[in-house]
Every structure is written in structure tokens, then in C-alpha cells.
Write a structure and sequence with these properties.
Blueprint: H1 6-28, H2 31-34, H3 45-84
Helix pairs in contact: 1-3
Length: 87
């Protein structure tokens, strides 16, 4: 039977959740789009600016994926704890 380290699984779930929160904060506070601000007046701006929306969208998707992974790991830890009476 495989061994599940319940405490380590819970710690990993928290870290994944924090990474998702960080990604969402980057969208909310504008860090995901402010990279284009550095290029103001540059010939590069018209190329990069449209990508900032895609970056914000992808960060949102990554945050959702990280949150789903965290829920799964938390569920694994909880079920393992219940099944083994430990944790």
C-alpha cells in the first residue's frame, strides 16, 4: 500500500493555493498588464500590448488550475486521514 504523508500533502496544498492567490493578485493589481507601461513610446509596444490581455487570461487559468490541484490534494489528505485514523 502506498504511503501518503498527510502533513506534507496539506502543506503542498497550501503552497499551491498561495501560488494561485499570487497569480490572481497579479491580475487584480495590474502587474499582469503593467509590463506594457515600460514600453511607452517604443516601437515594441504595439506588438506587446495585445499580449497583456492574453497574459492576464492565462494567469487566471493557471490560478484556477492551481486551486483545483490544491483542492484535490486537500481531499487526498482528508480521506487518507479518515481512512487511517491519523493525521
Amino acid at each position: 500500500m502506498p504511503h501518503v504523508d498527510i502533513a506534507a500533502t496539506r502543506r503542498s496544498a497550501r503552497q499551491l493555493e498561495q501560488a494561485g492567490d499570487t497569480a490572481r493578485e497579479a491580475i487584480a493589481d495590474g502587474r499582469a498588464t503593467s509590463c506594457a507601461d515600460e514600453l511607452a513610446g517604443s516601437a515594441t509596444l504595439p506588438v506587446v500590448y495585445p499580449l497583456t490581455g492574453a497574459l492576464a487570461l492565462r494567469l487566471g487559468q493557471v490560478a484556477t488550475e492551481l486551486e483545483a490541484m490544491a483542492r484535490g490534494m486537500r481531499s487526498l489528505a482528508d480521506h487518507t486521514s479518515t481512512a487511517t485514523g491519523s493525521g
